[in-house]
Specification:
The protein is mainly α and about 70 residues long. It has helices at about 1-50, 60-70.
Length: about 70
Amino acid sequence: MLQADKQVLLTGVKRNALELRQRELEFNIERYTNLATQASVVAGFSFESLVELEVPEETPWWLSSAYFVFGSS
């Protein structure tokens, strides 16, 4: 009887530990999914600003070059 109670207790502890690890995993997946979504939005806006920008003719060449070099990295 004592051995059976011990087995039930150990099984419960293992199950609780697995449930906790599952919740931690789901939390991290959700966290990185949100981060990936934000990064995609920022990358989209950055790409759009680099593609759609029209540099005026009177802008120095080094300034427009620096903008495109630093904006694309």
